[in-house]
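[job 0412] stage=fold_complex status=start
inputs:
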Amino acid sequence: MSSTVVILISVGLFFNFAGCIGLIRFPDIYNRLQASTKCVTLGTILILAALVFHFGWNSISIKAILCIAFILMTAPTAAHAISRGSHRAGFPLWDRSITDKYRDDTRQKSI
Amino acid sequence: MLIYFLNSILFVLGLYCLIAKKHLVKKIIGMVIMEYAINLFIVLLGYKGGGIPPILLPEMSKATFVQQSVDPLPQALVLTSIVIGLGVLALMVAISLRLYEKYKTFDMSEIRRLRG
Amino acid sequence: MQGMSFIVKTVTRLLIGVIFLFGIYITFYGHLTPGGGFAGGIMLACGFILLTLAFGKETSLGKLSDFWASMLDNLGAFTFWLVALLGYTGGYFFINFIEKKNPFGLLSSGTILINNIAIGVKVFASVFAVFLALTIFGRFVSGLAESEEED
Amino acid sequence: MENWLPLFVAVPLGMAFINLLLSKFIKRISPFLVLAAVVFQLWLALRFLGHAAFYYSMGNWTPPLGITLVWDPLSQLLALIVSVISLAVTLFAIPYMQQYTAQSKFYSLYLLMIAGMNGVVLTGDMFNLFVFLEIASIASYALVAFGVEAEELEASFKYLVLGGVSSTIILLAIALLYAATGTLNMADMAAALRHGISHGLLFFIFALFLMGFGLKSAMVPFHAWLPDAHPSAPAPISAMLSGLIIKALGIYALIRVFFIILGIVPIVKTIMMTLGGLSMVIGVFLAVGQWDFKRLLAYHSISQMGYVMVGIGLATPLGILGGLFHLLNHAVFKSLLFLCSGAFEYTTGTRQLKQLGGLIRKMPWTGGSCSIAALSISGVPPFNGFWSKLIIIVALFQAKFYFLGAVTVFVSFMTLISFIKVQKYSLFGNLPERLQGIKEAPVFMVAGVVILAVMCVGLGVLYPFYGPAILESARNLILEPGQYLQFAMP
Amino acid sequence: MKKIFDFIIMLLIWVALTWSLSLPDLIAGGLVSLLGVLLFSNLLPPEFTRILDPRRLFWAIIYLPVFFWQVIKSNFDVAYRVFHPEMPIRPGIVRVKTSLQSEVAKTFLANSITLTPGTLTIDCIENNLYVHWINIISEDPEIETELIVKKFEWFLKRIFD
Amino acid sequence: MNLLTFIYLPAAAGLLCLIIPRKIKYAQEAIAILAASLFLFLSFRAFSLPDETLRIPWFSIPPLDFSLDFRLVHFSKFLLIFLGLFTLLTALYSTGYFRKKSISQLYFPFVLWTLCGASGIVLANNFFVLLLGWEFVTLLLFFLIAMGQGKAASMAAGKTFAMLGFTDVALLLAVVALPLIYGSWKISELHIVLNTPFAIVIFLLMFIAAIAKAGAIPFHSWIPPAAQSGPLPVIAFLPASLDKLLGIYLLALITLNVFSIPIGSSISILIMVIGALTIIVAVLIAVVQHDLKRLLSYHAISQVGYMVLGIGTGNPIGIAGGLFHMLNHAIYKSSLFFSAGAVERQTGTTDVDKLGGLGKYMPVTFLACLVASLSISGVPPFNGFVSKWMIYQGLVEGRSWIYMVFLAVAMFGSALTLASFLKLLYGPFMGERFRSESASKSAAPRGIKEVHWTMLVPMVILSLLCIGFGLFAQYPINQYIGPILDIKFGSVLHSINIGTAFWNPTIATILLIFGLIIGAVFYFLSRRRTRSTETIFIGGEKFVVDRERSLAGNFYEFLERMGVIGGFLKESNKGILDIYNLSGDFGLIFVGVLKKLHDGVLSTYLAWCVIGLGVLSFVLMVL
Amino acid sequence: MVVFVILLLLCAFFCLYRVGAGPTPPDRTVAIDILGILMVGFCAILSLYTGKDLYMNVAIAWALLSFIGTTALAKYLEGRTFDE
Ligand code: NA
Ligand code: NA
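[job 0412] stage=fold_complex status=done
writing structure:
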């Protein structure tokens, strides 16, 4: 197994790890989303990329590429859906948050 | 062995939920939990430490396949019983919907016109 | 607004084709890779479920009306049965009566391919039906919850 | 010829799907399809009648690898019962179901139920047994709720939950057996078990199966679903449930597993007899207190299955014979009774005994048949019920179970009382004013009823002509389960 | 035209999945793709056919490294904030404007924003993107828009609009 | 001649009756009468034939041998004759009784099949066949009674079937036990000594079946409701005659042939106690009845007591008396029911208080009723006197204090019988006829005339038999009864030469006369009482009514003064005596509890299952 | 190789903690979503290890299912039923 592959995977796992720590540490749902979505997405993508590097051009790597595209599409969308849902469901921001334009506007709409 | 123990815990949990909970949905959930505990049990039966999946691949000889691969049967069984469970679930849901329409409650202990 | 935000909708538009293909792929190659009819059918059903989530019931039912869902359901079962019965052409019930083509190809398995397709169709149809039932059920449950909150 | 064995399952199954497909486009086709399937099934059963025991491996995989179907005297008995009863019931159902919507669904479920039962009866594979058992059960759950009235839904849900639990338990037991023997083929499993299995495990499996199949066959204390479920279904289904399902899924499976695969042990016999005795007494006492015709019948099913259980649990040649005989007889007269109740409900619109009366004058055929069935369930000679009860009682005395024997006799007297009540209030006495206008049931319903009534008389009197071939051969198989290993495996 | 395009795309994906060019597989793929087109072509976004325009394709290819560079930056940024003892964050939800028209473009923009440093698109109403910003630098919408949106908008306009 | 003819013939005739179209008037009646007379003729011919046995192998499930054994012995021949006779008379009577009335198509077939079943019983040479016939007759009785009018009839039918069914089950138990314990259920092969508990249990079970069919205490309570609401010919046919014959036949069979009971053993005492109780209790209830049919039915019960008592004595003369009394009772009781039926058909009621003065209008009926009443009360020279006399003789020969008690009871019983029959005779037939306003609408309209001849002929024949069997008692005794006992102890029988002993002024004769006098005294006492009250009223009809009431009333007061019996009598009228109701109440309590348990809550049921599973696994794995 | 797997499992356990701890439904939802993506990585590593593409099929399937599941949950969060 070539060193590139190992490095890619290690970096990927590092980001995954960071993302999960963020999931644990950050105060509210929105920050957690920030951390986890970004990191875990990239981490996984890197691991898949490692596959591509390892196998070169075969059925596995093509599927890996498909998977990458897939995750790039879905992960942020999921994050958006969750945050939107939770905000609409009225789950509050962290109390030390600066501002919430979204709430202001949506409230104006609802009035 | 521990895993089997946990498995049985799961089963008992489902059973408890089925008996103790009055809410119809909770009963259904309990039922499903039970079924899945059993399925899990069967999977565990089939599992061999360090076994390979039961698909015969080109580069592998029959002999090695037979002695290495995990027992394929349990997966098949579980798949079947999952399908069956799905059927039961669907039926339960459909019936409980209508039950709610008729009795206007999900409390199974109030759904007792038939007795004696 | 019917369905979810346009972002989800757009992403769904982009993915639905892939999901569809993938489900069928899993179904067709069930005799070579794990999964087969059941997994594939679930994939397909998930595709429709995603449609339902993103665009609302009308869209998905427009693609596959509940009538045709039930027809597919029966058709799948019927096909499977027919294949089993056609086994008699090979002398035995359920025997694999189609001669096997090149190994590890699409047609390497005789009837199993057909069976997989049949199962796939059936599972797809029935899972989708179950999902719809469950959503109605969900509405009931939430309705109940509200009524409980009221009193 | 032997090649055709799978058709027992395949034809009803396929017809079920075909029916759903076609009935969407061709109206009124369902009854013909169903009738065709059932007649074919009967023809098949008669073709196989007396055929030597053999196994059929699906897709020609040699057992224990493939799934096998096995035809042996025990399967033969049940297969015959299923095909005959379902023919009569189908005849009855054709006019009766006209009053329901969604008939095609009904007929498909009905066929699924038949297919499931045939599968259970014929399969030689343990897991397959479970699958067919579930097919039949699910179909019956759905059919119980078919009328979608409040009570029917309630009954169906309770039936579903309890039945589901028992199925889960059965599956668990099968899994344990698989873990212990490493095979699912019944014969193979039996052979493996002969070589020995951990005592504790074996007994645990026994307990699980007792609960599982005990619930399917409505043994006390697992009986509570039956009196709700059986009356709630449409009459033909009630007949199928009480006449066939509890036997094929309950008693038959129990016999097959306990006697032929696991090998019966004394304490299990005792437990079976105890459960049977309890069911007899409790069932009949609850029946005596009923005024709803079908509910009364349902409780009697519990008590009559108690007889069967006692006979089988006795495990003496005479006892098993009596049990099997009573199984056969109960299938006949109980389905007949349920069909009659259906006919009465069809014509009078009620099944409350207190609102009926004098029907025998307006409905001589149905009423007469009902009377015959009532007499044969109460064990009045020369009707069939008398003979099987007599044999069971004699077997009990022979085995020196005097108390249980006395209880059995007493219960059959209570049954008599209860059915005197039925006849008193439904057949004889004055015809209520609002029933003056009623007429005899449609001809197909009468046909179905009369077939069974004739059997009620014939089965008792003509025993010498069919008994040895059908009942005693099955008895012998149960007594020497070793035979099974010879013909069910290569 | 669009249908053919969709068909080809699907066939390509199929080949990628099966990873074989043997005749039966291709025939099966053709049939399946046909079915897919018949079922879903009205759902598949029309904007994609524009990709065939070489200029758009060029910008798309240019866009990828830029985007990935942003993604990696963002990750290190998050990692820094996560592992930093006292979590240097001042979160809040801000409103930024975009001049993109097509929904696809806006979708890509939103997702890109989500995957890039410190920002998470919560919702997009007309031309307003509501973005959760983990470390708000200034409250001025102009600056925010500048910081968050512009770097992608420029490309996406050229790709989709 | 094949003895199965006696089974085929009625069966075939019944079938013919069933299928023959209703259009043809009197077709069924004709067939029934012809078949019965043919049966009678054949049975007379068979009487002279030698004994024979017949075995039809059927199938056998060891240890049970279900092959059909028949035998033609003297006892069966003798019974066949009277079965045929009573069927013939009933058929004839029914022809008149149901004239211009609607009766079920099944009536005549069932009557004929009853005959078929009965001859099956008397011809059976194995208890299995006997059981089949036994239950078959019970079944037909159920349907026949159910043919009566209204809910009451179906209720009565149900009660009958329940009680007889229960005792049939007892018989079933006994019969089933026979092959297991004694290796066979062939009657001719069984000679059991009553010394093992099994033997005693089996005997008692069979005994119960026998006395229930015959209608002795405590299994009597099915007869009165049946008699009141069932079709009258049926009552005259079955409970009054055929069931007596069959029940006592079985009793005689088991006491004389199958089991050997030592004289004076506890079993024989038990039998006699039951007999004595039956006599006294039934007659006490009878005297306070106001309905003709109920009254007759209670007498039908009390007379059974004499038969049981006679057979219980165990000595030849007593047994012979018992059997003879069975025969006589069948004769006069069916005659009484026939005449009651005649009265009912003409006046529409059977309430003693509403009837009067029918003697002038229905002379034949009246005479028949008179003869029968006198012979049931044991007045010489009618047949009842002879059989009672023999029974007394048997008791006297018992020579122990307990026999004397039974004797006293029997005498008291016949005294009361006489009294109540005097009342019966005076009430409806003598006395003065009602004015229609004072009577109920249906009762005694103007222009009552004698019933149709088809109904008279049977009564006449029976009355002639009453007189004939009284005057020339030695004929039936030596022809019919004697040979039966000959089987066991013929020598003993000849030692007491009944033929000459007949008019001996033995103690028995005196006792009988004494009893009659007591009865008369009772009656006239009560009459004088009512005379004294008569002055208060004006108008004969009131006088009649009142007298009847006062008679009953006096007896009531008189008996109530007798402490225990009085209380018991009250209870018995409330039906507490009825074991049917008793067990019913107890059963329903249990049912109630069980129904409470099934509370319809799913969790409860689940809990049962889980607990059940737990118990099962515990039992299996721990024990 | 084993290290990779262990690390992944560690991440998975963090997510599971979040699933269990909550506190709000969205938190759990996020955790589940992330868990799904992690599993995709896990499958990738498996197929790297065994060199079979069937694990990639599983990976794709998993990604798909977790996306749909998350979407459903998100929609549920808004208090709407799945089919409107
Ligand atoms: Na019963
Ligand atoms: Na019974």
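[job 0412] summary: Chain G is about 85% helix and 0% strand.
[job 0412] exit 0
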